[in-house]
Amino acid sequence: MELTGKKELLSHLPDRPKYILKLYLLQVILITLLTLAVLFILDILPSLLPTVGWLTLLEPYIPPLGSMLVIAGGLSIVHVVWRKRDKFISQDKKRAFQKSVKYTFTGIPISMAGIIHMFLPVSWLAEEIFSLIGFRNPLTDLFQTPIGRLIATAAGNSNYNDSIVRIVFSVMFLILAILNIFRTIFVFGVDYSAMVYVYYPEESKIIDHKIYSIVRHPLYVSVFLLMISALISNFSIYSVIISIVFILCFSYHIYGIEEKELIERFGEGFKAYRKEVPALIIHPRNWGKFFKFLLGKEI
Length: 299
Description:
Elements: H1 6-11, H2 20-48, H3 53-58, H4 62-78, H5 80-83, H6 85-92, H7 96-116, H8 122-129, H9 138-144, H10 147-154, H11 163-188, H12 190-193, H13 218-234, H14 237-266, H15 268-276, H16 287-294
């Protein structure tokens, strides 16, 4: 079974081989892994270099700052797709999208690495991979400890452990995110997901699917669910800070970049639609419809 929208996507990559999508997938995986490796090395750098005194002071702040930088940096790379659109089209409309797609498949995995970074506490990498014990700055351990455990310890319950509950809910949201990714690509096509029609709006089709009556950005719901999964998995001060930064950056991307373009394309009609339907957070009354969508049933 051929991937929905594959032919349409490849038609806008005239100078690329037919197996280019596999290469892009490999690129996404490699960039994600490389970015994660850089983040984790930065996390434990103070322990790897114990003689460098100033790293001790920076140690508690390196993990969140690292994620903040890659999230913001990754999204800024994706924004080039919009910033250089008119330039690329004026140079060569037929190959305009082909020039921009490299920014999409570079920026997205960099940003996603910032979210994935939240899944594992710094101590896991330090102790299990590099056999490093303890941190030089006590704030590091405080910031990476699950908030529930901090509250319980402060209340005198040092035996409190909510790891099983966190893992269960984290896996649940992760499964929902993965299901939604596959479902949205199957329904709308990989060409829509790759933002082909940002460059060729005249070729886009009006998609009258009922999922758009409950959420404006079905595919981005997957990103939001992945962030929740990462947040719950550790639920530390670190993960809360990173989640807030991601929400702010992602909100800017949606409202300041993508929807600005949609307003230019669809005018007052999209403004009215935006007032009626939420961007990412599905109202509880529509959860049943959302689950039907995930299962491929009629909403």
